[in-house]
Amino acid sequence: MTKDVVLKVDGLGKSFKIYPNPVGRIKEWLTFGRRKYHKRFLALENISFEVRKGGFLGIIGPNGAGKSTLLKVLTGVLEPTSGTYKTSGRVLSLLELSGGMDNDLSGRENIIRSSQLLGFPPGYVEKKMTQIEDFAELEDFFDQPLSVYSSGMRIRLAFSMFAFLECDILILDEVLAVGDIFFRQKCYVRLEELIAQNVAIILVTHSTGTVRQYCDDVIVLQNGRIIYHGDSQQAISKYFEIKKDQGIKIKVSDTYVEEDYASFNTISLKARHGTLEWPAESILEKAVLPKKNENQRVKLIHLLICNEQGNPLQAFEQGSKAYFYFAYQAKENMGVPLAEITFLTPKNFLIHSRNSLQLDVIPPLKLQKGEIVRYRQMVKLDLAPGNYIFNLRLLTMHPSDFKERKKISSMELKEKLITVLDIKPAGMIGVFQQSQGQGIGLHGGLCNLEGEMHLEVVHG
Amino acid sequence: MFKNLYIYRRYLIGTFWTELRYRYAGTILGFFWVVITPLLEVLIYAVVFSQIVSIRSGGEKGVSYTLFLTSGLFPFIAFSQSISRGMDAIKANAIYMRRSLVPSEVFVFKEVLLSGFSFFIYLFLLIPISLIAGNPITWQTLLMPVFAVFLLILGFGMSLPLANLRILFPDLGEIIPVIMQLWRWTLPIMFTDKNFPALLRRLMSLNPPYYFIRSFRDVLIEHSAPPVEAWVSMGLWIIFFLIIAQVISGQLRKEVKDLL
Question: Out of A342, B103, B131, B190, which could bridge A391 as a Cys pair, Cβ 3.0 to 4.6 Å?
Fold first, then answer.
């Protein structure tokens, strides 16, 4: 191990034995393991990486990818089935944070207890107590039993303690996803101080924003294997690819071949209203539609999101343009075909929605049974980094109402709109931080509102 | 095993004291609860056996049946407590074991220590009971704490493998308490084996806690140190079960952790 490397993981694997029932285990024991009654569940497979002094390694991956198992192995709670890992120095881990604290003891007593548990000499943590107490900002609660703490307070306590115990490697598991934003920010400041002191940090998280901002090295885990190891931007893209495969089913193939793009140029279509740029069938076919995509009136046949270059993507840089391509077929004669895309935060906060009327497109007045309508809607993603959900609503209205649309009030207009098919959620997109906005970021809050600032100094 | 206990001694003692403090400070009658169950049991057995079934303690020295019963029942209750609590220790502390490196024997040992605490309360209770029964306290009584410690070590040696096995076989959690109930009838606790045939007595003495329980009576009622065979038997059982504990918990350590 070179001098700088504090953690070296080499071909690490972990599998669990799964018995159908306890009787199977007894039978296996009775035959001295000659007959096997268990199945092996491979939680980790061939994991290798290194962490250097002062490094900040991020581990991301969907639920069940093996992140927690990996951390448990690294902290020594679980033993690996194959491979090795070497650590130099003290490893501290905030695994299953605050779960192991004693409800009867006060915050202060819990800190003393935990430091004993972690093997610090007596009196060590007492010296750090004022620092910990100040950082936690728990005031009077610090000396009250944990049973009166809120879950946020427990996390404050646990993080404050770990942030001040000396170690060489600090392992954090989803810690910073919780707690209020002010405290979270303080935590990051503290983590940066620790890195400056040459502490290596391993962070397991779902927050791609955090990973992008802090981690110089990121591992993407899926099904117990490292599917990507490298810089954060690429890692986040990989991560979103997995996510869209898993969660909301909009499947785009994992590997995009160059020739796919070649055919994706302006293709002349026999559309009733002009020419529409439309992706090649080969790309569209790979996209999996949302579950609910059909009723007796219409059937959604395509849905694909691409960037300006025409590459199907799931994660976009802040401020870039996303092109939503979708097409549906009418199963009966209907009026004016309209559509609307809505963006929501994962907490269901409506961010933005825009429909055909608002975009002032001129649709055909009627749609015959069997006809297919293709749409391309561009949205500029001037949004904060994060995950967003989008809904797709197909609408229609009577041709005569449509002709009157600019004369009637918006309230009346809303009543004339008929929902044909409401797909929610239709999918998810990720927005990651723009490279030039690194550090402080482009803006705060959800939306990037255009703005300027001027200043001058006036001699008084 | 003992090395681990030594490494985590501070944690062990720390949790032991806090648990003691909060287990009893949180209840109104506090320590009273520790003694109420065994006293009630003694009362029930005393009424049933001396008044209804009319078993005598063997009659020697005119010692009352109540003292005879108490001196055997109290140690056995403490012993079975140490096993039932010790064998639950891993399951109850799974939350700590999942996130820390503290080995399982520390938690089992802590539970045995806690039942050791009630054990010593029982021993103190034996003194007034003995005096009321008209049985003098002699210097041999000082040996009682020694046997208590022996019995607790035996309890530890039995509960550590059980605690591990119980994670793999959840049914054990239901079976063992039943066995503990039946077990007390295989020992001369409620009755004396003085008048039993020699062969039966021999067989009964093979029961691991047999000499432990008898030694309490030897020092309290007979006022004599136990015979050599008692010391040898106690020593052998302790060594035997500690080896079993070491082997089984060592073998299962990995698998148990995976299952927690």
Answer: A342
